[in-house]
Amino acid sequence: YLLRTTWGQAFVRSYYRNSPPIAAWIQERSWARTLTRTALWAPVLALETFRDHALIAIPFAILLALGAVLVLRRRLA
What we know:
It is a single chain. By secondary structure, the chain is mainly alpha-helical. The chain has 3 helices and no strands.
């Protein structure tokens, strides 16, 4: 589905380029694993809370995910 659009293709390329080093970095640090698991609950809870308000929940979850990627990417640099 994502590969049908330019934005989706860019997202998939970015995911495969950035995810392995981020995952390795997280795996080496127990506090980072705990923080990551906790952070991943935020979009789930937001989506559940705003289940009937998708126009709010989806952008909120995307922003949370992008923020987490940017923070981790800065720490890896």
